[in-house]
Specification:
Length: about 425
């Protein structure tokens, strides 16, 4: 087992707790990842110490709001750890999020409230021994996502767990165990009670996993897709299958999360034929609580859809406008996901990009509003059109200096 700095810090935190007479274990995702041979991106520590005791032991902390029984402790060099007091079931009144917790002094009880067996393993940091009360190791080895306890009850408590099952399956390529899967199908429509923010966070997790195509397949077959993304209701099966193929290309396109989310959203909206006619930017912000900048980036890419997908049928100047636009890299990612990296259209764009690099247009020859005013033209709606026309002429190589552009406008006016 590789001992990273992050893991060493987690040991330090656990040791301080055990030196004070408490139990302290690595818990949940970090144990799962260690056993799978992945480097955990964070370590959570479970303890019988009450939050007030944890606070006494750790003066440096990140104050977090709503999370019950969780203290975020901070080591000198900025490493952060979540220390969570053992608890029994969380109190779920509404299937959305816990409204209270009951602390416990028993590690056994603590694992019973966790969502899936693969997430319910504890590790003793001193011995690296695994404490497995739910046969999680067996499921980890078999590659199964299985609810802890009665799946129906667990999904009724917190409907988000259904999306988490899909996310873990998409991340690790695991199969969702039969009873767990049957319960997901039975409760899928109840996902609607979960807040949009939590749903979107899980969708993003699925999209940036190594198997986003599989994620879509599971969402579709479980019946979670409609409740998660209602705008996809009514999209024919074959279009959803096409979307699955497109999403499956995302990991090989090696995106940073931000452009990846832009492309993934754009692919989903693209599956709805009517997409561009709708005020999507606004809907994405309102219905899905996306940030304005993310929503804008998505609609910016979609606005280029027809040029992107059929460049030969577009004016070359328009194509070059896209090539020099800030959203070009993301738009090209969208195209490669949509049509495949070796598609004729992707090849067309690569050639066009090379040509533009070899024969760069004289971008300084473009004009601005001030230039038109100086020519004595009255500002108005026609301004934009004239400036656009000049830009296209410049990009097509017919205007090479500002003087030529001004003369061109004068001749037209
Ligand atoms: P990731 O690597 O994506 O962070 P994770 O398993 O660490 O995966 P977290 O959301 O960080 O997931 O949660 C940490 C642990 O808390 C989980 O492993 C699981 O034991 C428990 N947990 C988290 N969310 C829930 C939930 N909704 N219901 C029950 N247990 C949960
Ligand atoms: Mg985690």
């Amino acid at each position: 087992m590789r001992h990273t700095k992050l893991m060493e810090g987690a040991r330090e935190v656990a040791k301080r707790l055990s030196d004070a007479g408490h139990q302290a274990y690595f818990a949940g995702g970090c144990v799962r990842d260690l056993l799978l041979g992945f480097e955990p991106k964070d370590f959570d520590i479970a303890t019988d110490a009450r939050p007030e005791d944890v606070r006494r032991l750790f003066r440096r902390r990140v104050e977090v709001g709503a999370a019950f029984g969780v203290v975020r402790v901070l080591l000198e060099d900025g490493r952060e750890y979540e220390v969570a007091t053992f608890r029994t079931e969380d109190g779920y009144e509404d299937g959305r999020r816990p409204d209270h917790v009951e602390y416990s002094t028993s590690a056994d009880e603590d694992v019973q409230r966790r969502d899936f067996t693969i997430n319910a393993l504890l590790m003793d940091p001193k011995t690296e021994g695994i404490i497995d009360k739910v046969q999680g190791r067996k499921d980890l080895e078999a590659g199964l996502v299985r609810a802890v306890g009665d799946a129906h009850r667990r999904f009724r408590e917190d409907r988000l767990r259904m999306l988490r099952a899909v996310r873990f399956s998409a991340r690790f390529g695991f199969v969702i165990e039969d009873d767990t899967w049957a319960a997901m199908k039975a409760h899928a429509s109840e996902l609607r009670v979960v807040s949009r923010e939590r749903v979107v966070a899980e969708l993003h997790g699925i999209w940036r996993s190594s198997r986003p195509g599989r994620g879509l397949m599971l969402l579709r077959e479980s019946g979670l897709l409609g409740p998660a993304l209602p705008f996809l209701a009514g999209v024919p099966e074959e279009d959803l299958l096409a979307l699955e193929t497109r999403l499956a290309r995302l990991p090989e396109l090696l995106f940073e999360p931000d452009p990846l989310f832009v492309v993934a959203w754009a692919l989903h909206l693209d599956a709805v034929q009517a997409a561009p006619a709708e005020p999507w930017a606004q809907r994405l912000v309102q219905d899905f609580k996306l940030s304005r900048s993310l929503a804008r980036a998505i609609t910016d890419v979609l606005a280029w859809r027809s040029v992107l997908c059929a460049p030969e049928q577009s004016r070359i100047g328009r194509c070059r406008q896209l090539l020099i636009a800030p959203e070009w890299a993301t738009a090209f990612g969208f195209l490669r996901a949509r049509e495949g990296g070796a598609s004729a259209s992707a090849e067309w764009w690569r050639t066009a990009e090379r040509e533009l690099r070899e024969h760069p247009p004289a971008l300084d020859a473009r004009l601005g509003g001030d230039d038109l005013r100086a020519l004595g033209l009255a500002p108005g709606p026609a301004f934009k059109e004239i400036l656009e026309e000049v830009e296209l002429e410049v990009l097509e190589g017919r205007l090479e200096t500002k003087e030529e552009s001004l003369a061109w406008v004068r001749a037209k006016a």
